[in-house]
């Protein structure tokens, strides 16, 4: 056990975590340079393209230091605020963390919040200044930030460049000398923390764990403490570049177990694996992940509902955070109301459905979870506008608020404050981290950051702002349900819950956007926005006057038939409300009100 | 005797057979046209040989006599007397011909002269389709047409004088710079000539044409949708006033003068297309020849017909029927659609009442057909009825 080191990497997106991890794998000969493709740990194409880690991963390396062989378990963590719970569990599985900071960019909000998580778990932090080779690097300034933040020794900060391979040996040495070996009793009752799971289409779910106490042997009867489900340890092993089976694994080590589990939702990150017969206590810190953002997902082709269900089920096999239940919309037919950890998670789910399952879907207006209190004192959870109770029975509504931390350059403080005020935010704190880096804290309604907050923040700060947030509770709020009607018929999928003060502007812009997106049809289309019975905005799409091809191209009947069939196919992807055909882009219009 | 007349009559209604011959040459390329043609005449002689060989190669296409022959293009009137004679000779030699044969030749006004007219008469051509397009010289120049308005008028009178008693005039509307007054003037002039038939096509901007390019780069403006619609409505009213029957979206005739050949395209009749890019239909398959003069010639010279074949599914046939029949005056026979082509009745029940209520479609017992306002939206309505 004294030769094992378990560590994770804390870094902001783009600060070079994946490249640095690749270098560690090369230096320890875990992968040969020849085999390595960029970002070895990022399995999904999506991760490689976006340069982000969506799922966490783990890999074991061997390294000989001063004649002794060490086993290094790197637990990679997702780098986005949507996945902070997963991050916390990965951190809990380690004794140490590499804190990677871009020498040109400095510390970002996300890094700070994850760093606090790591410090909370008493992890040994090894600060690394990455991209030291860049011309824009400001090592001394960034070191000041790190020292301020960690209270660490200035000399202990390692200079590195993942790209150039600088400082990699120093990092490996620091991992061995500075991170403590795991403690634990191999003879005690088994306690293994689940920090990740992955789906293998042949073998079911692979569960990644870190053993804190006890010993796990192949073939043993195990139990997951929080779900109380029991399994056989069909296969256990360590995570090299490929999985390597072992007959037994002991306290301190990191590995995987395959036990015939079919669905990811049976496996909860943060749960504890123990023996059925001699159970150990559940490890502290388990929580059920709660979705923050809700939206409907519908198949573009109504006939593909069952196929979508199958795809969602498969997707859920390795995305336990995704929750959904069937939902029906008058406009869109059968679909699912889904809960996501955040907007990125929502985008990822949508993109994975398209890429991995070849499903094209319509995603409806994302919404947060409101709480409606009726005059009878009843509380109703509102996950979709259609859940809103009748105004006559409604007493008041509460909406979720977050505490948002934004770190930026002092130049952008003004615009960011006005953005947050515009989003109904309250400024709570403003701290200068250095002479030109500021940390701003706001209380903001979650609903306001769901839409375009990130994009706006990035634009007004020219990319020099990072955001982290946590839910702080619910507050009474004057929100209303805004409906859209086409020729007098309500399009349920376009309804939204918005703050009353913003409803007029919202309705106006949505009507305008829809006028652009709705193709002209054989009749005039009236687009109206309403709150209750009150119409607040109206636009008109004029009727199509002429659509007839003059010629049937001589005897070439096929050409015109195929042309029309293609158009028909396009129309099939549209939805009808009354007789109005609505293209799928229209359902996403809400997300693009500013474009 | 009575018996055989009756048979022949049914035969005519139900089983027309037509040959189309594509002459892929033009003296000049019109800026809007994306049909298959070449302005290089060096392969013409070999092409005529190839056409004749194809006529022979496909002589077993029909099991019944031919009712119509149609020479189209390109510009069939560019053929010399020898070339035309050879083509006709081979048809006569290898095909059984009906006694009421309709033979149409598409002719450009500039090719219409005394000699040609005599030749065409002598070959049995009894219907001329004259490509006038417009009687406005400035627009003709824009279209890159070789002829002028006066050529059209002279040509028309010459053809009449030569005894052609079934003449069709081609017109186009929605042309660049064309005003409403110009269009009305075109229609009036055309009607004053009293042709038996008028085909009038709204200009369609096709991608791979000069107009297509100009339009894409914003250097060509054509009358907008609203104007096009008005031009079309003008035409329907004016021609109807003069007794022309609109028997198809773009085709008008005096009573008894429908184009039998073109009708066969819309009535799912069999037709054989000879020449590069020509289309054939044998009742269940559609075939189209290679649209390249040289590959076509070489293939034919090696004894093969270079066509692509598509077998129509029941759904394809239903959609083609909807698409073509809806464009005709008679419209769609519902019984044929549901019984013969297995179109689901409940789908009809779902759409028809709405189309009728909105005044786009008229229904009389078993037929549905487009109203005037429906004609303007024919493609939209077709799409509504189309099967997925």
Description:
The complex is a heterodimer of chains A (595) and B (388). Chain A has 595 residues and is α+β, with helices and mostly antiparallel strands. In chain A, 25% of the residues lie in helices and 35% in strands. In chain A, α7 packs across α8. The longest helix of chain A has 18 residues, at 500-517. The model of chain A has no long low-confidence stretch (mean pLDDT 87). Chain B is an alpha/beta fold and 388 residues long. In chain B, 43% of the residues lie in helices and 21% in strands. Chain B has helices at 2-14, 44-57, 81-94, 114-122, 137-142, 149-161, 180-192, 210-216, 225-241, 260-266, 293-301, 314-325, 334-340, 345-357, 372-376, 378-385; strands spanning 17-23, 66-73, 97-107, 127-133, 167-173, 197-202, 245-248, 251-253, 270-274, 279-281, 285-289, 307-311, 332-333, 361-364, 367-370. Chain B has a 9-stranded mixed beta sheet with strand order 7-8-6-5-4-3-2-1-9, sandwiched between helices. In chain B, strands 10-11-12 form a 3-stranded antiparallel beta sheet, with no helix packed on it. In chain B, strands 13-15-14 form a 3-stranded antiparallel beta sheet. At the A-B interface, α13 of A face α9, β10, α12 and α16 of B.
Which fold does the CATH topology of the largest domain in chain B refer to?
TIM Barrel
The backbone outline of chain B, from C-alpha atoms, is globular
End-to-end Cα distance of chain B: 48 Å
Percent of residues in helices of chain B comes to 40-55%
Question: Helix fraction of chain A?
Answer: 25-40%
SS elements, strand count of chain A:
33
Low-confidence stretches of chain B: 1-13
Instruction: Name the chain pair whose interface involves the most residues.
Output: A-B, 27 and 45 residues
What's the number of helices of chain B?
Answer: 16
- In terms of DSSP E residues, the strand content of chain B is 15-25%
* CATH class categorisation of the largest domain in chain B: Alpha Beta
């Amino acid at each position: 056990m004294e030769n094992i080191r378990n560590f994770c990497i804390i870094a902001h997106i783009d600060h070079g975590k994946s490249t640095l991890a690749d270098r560690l794998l090369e230096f320890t000969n875990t992968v040969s340079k020849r085999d390595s493709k960029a970002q070895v740990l990022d399995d999904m194409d999506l991760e490689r393209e976006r340069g982000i880690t969506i799922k966490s991963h783990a890999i074991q390396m061997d390294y000989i230091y001063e004649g002794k062989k060490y086993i290094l378990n790197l637990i990679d963590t997702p780098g986005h605020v949507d996945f902070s719970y997963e991050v916390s569990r990965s951190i809990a599985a380690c004794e140490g963390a590499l804190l990677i900071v871009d020498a040109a960019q400095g510390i970002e909000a996300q890094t700070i919040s994850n760093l606090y998580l790591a410090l909370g778990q008493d992890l040994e932090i090894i600060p690394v200044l990455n991209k030291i080779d860049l011309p824009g690097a400001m090592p001394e300034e960034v070191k000041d930030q790190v020292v301020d933040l960690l209270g660490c020794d200035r000399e202990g900060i390692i200079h590195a460049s993942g790209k150039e391979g600088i400082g990699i040996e120093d990092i490996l040495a620091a991992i061995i000398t500075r991170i403590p070996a795991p403690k634990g009793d191999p003879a005690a009752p088994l306690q293994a923390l689940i920090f990740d799971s992955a789906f293998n289409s042949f073998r079911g779910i692979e569960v990644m764990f870190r053993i804190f106490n006890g010993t796990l042997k192949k073939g043993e009867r195990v139990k997951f403490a929080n779900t109380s489900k029991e399994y056989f340890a069909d296969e256990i092993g360590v995570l090299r570049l490929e999985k390597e089976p072992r007959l037994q694994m002991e306290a301190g080590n990191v590995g995987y177990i395959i036990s015939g589990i079919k669905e990811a939702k049976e496996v909860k990150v943060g749960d504890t694996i123990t023996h059925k017969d001699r159970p150990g206590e559940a490890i502290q810190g388990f929580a059920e992940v709660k979705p923050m953002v809700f939206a409907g997902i519908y198949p573009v082709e109504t006939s593909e509902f069952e196929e979508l269900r199958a795809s969602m089920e498969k997707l859920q096999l390795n995305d336990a955070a995704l929750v959904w239940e069937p939902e029906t919309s008058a406009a869109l037919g059968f679909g699912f109301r889904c809960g996501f950890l955040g907007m990125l998670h929502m985008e990822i789910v949508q993109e994975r459905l398209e890429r991995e399952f070849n499903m094209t879907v319509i995603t409806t207006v994302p919404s947060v979870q409101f709480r409606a209190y009726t005059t009878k004192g009843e509380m109703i959870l509102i996950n979709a506008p259609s859940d809103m109770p009748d105004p006559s029975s409604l007493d008041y509504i509460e909406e979720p608020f977050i505490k948002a931390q934004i770190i930026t350059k002092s130049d952008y403080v003004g615009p960011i404050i006005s953005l947050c005020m515009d989003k109904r935010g309250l400024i709570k704190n403003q701290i200068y981290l250095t002479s030109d880096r500021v940390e701003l804290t706001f209380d903001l309604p979650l609903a306001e950051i769901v839409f375009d907050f990130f994009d706006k923040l990035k634009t007004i700060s020219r990319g020099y702002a990072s955001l982290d947030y946590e839910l702080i509770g619910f507050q009474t709020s004057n929100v209303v349900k805004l409906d859209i009607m086409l020729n007098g018929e309500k399009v349920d999928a376009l309804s939204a819950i918005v703050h009353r003060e913003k409803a007029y502007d919202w309705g106006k812009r949505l009507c305008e956007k829809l006028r652009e997106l709705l193709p002209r049809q054989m009749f005039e289309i009236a687009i109206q926005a309403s709150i209750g019975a009150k119409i607040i905005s109206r636009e008109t799409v004029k009727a199509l006057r002429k659509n007839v091809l003059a010629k049937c191209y001589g005897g070439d009947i096929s050409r015109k038939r195929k042309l029309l069939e293609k158009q028909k196919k396009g129309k099939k992807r549209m939805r009808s409300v009354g007789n109005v055909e609505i293209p799928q882009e229209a359902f996403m219009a809400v997300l693009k009100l500013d474009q | 005797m009575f018996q055989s007349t009756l048979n022949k009559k049914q035969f005519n209604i139900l089983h027309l057979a037509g040959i189309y011959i594509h002459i892929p040459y033009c003296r000049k390329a019109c800026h809007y046209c994306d049909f298959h043609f070449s302005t290089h005449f060096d392969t013409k002689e070999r092409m005529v040989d190839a056409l004749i060989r194809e006529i022979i190669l496909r002589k077993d296409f029909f099991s019944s006599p031919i009712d119509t022959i149609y020479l189209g293009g390109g510009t069939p009137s560019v053929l010399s007397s020898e070339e035309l004679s050879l083509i006709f000779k081979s048809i006569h030699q290898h095909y059984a011909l009906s006694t009421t044969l309709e033979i149409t030749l598409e002719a450009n006004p500039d090719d219409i002269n005394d000699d040609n007219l005599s030749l065409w008469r002598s070959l049995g051509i009894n219907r001329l389709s004259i490509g006038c397009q417009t009687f406005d010289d400035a627009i003709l120049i824009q279209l890159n047409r070789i002829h002028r308005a006066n050529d059209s008028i002279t040509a028309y009178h010459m053809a009449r004088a030569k005894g052609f008693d079934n003449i069709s005039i081609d017109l186009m509307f929605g042309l660049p710079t064309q005003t409403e007054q110009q269009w009305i003037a075109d229609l009036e002039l055309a009607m004053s000539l009293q042709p038996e038939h008028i085909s009038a096509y709204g200009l369609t901007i096709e991608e791979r044409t000069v107009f297509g390019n100009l339009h894409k780069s914003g250097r060509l403006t054509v009358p907008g949708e609203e104007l096009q619609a008005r031009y079309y409505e003008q035409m329907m009213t004016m021609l109807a006033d003069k007794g022309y029957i609109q028997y198809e979206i773009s085709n008008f005739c005096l009573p008894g003068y429908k184009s039998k050949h073109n009708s066969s395209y819309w009535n799912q009749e069999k037709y054989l297309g000879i020449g590069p890019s020509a289309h054939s239909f044998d009742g269940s398959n559609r075939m189209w020849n290679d649209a390249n003069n040289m590959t076509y010639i070489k293939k034919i010279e090696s004894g093969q017909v270079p066509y692509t074949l598509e077998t129509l599914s029941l759904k394809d046939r239903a959609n083609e029927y909807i698409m073509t029949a809806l464009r005709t005056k008679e419209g769609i026979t519902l019984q044929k659609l549901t019984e013969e082509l297995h179109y689901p009745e409940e789908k009809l029940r779902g759409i028809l009442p709405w189309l009728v209520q909105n005044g786009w479609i008229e229904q009389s017992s078993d037929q549905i057909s487009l109203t005037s306002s429906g004609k303007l939206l024919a493609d939209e309505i077709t799409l509504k009825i189309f099967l997925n």
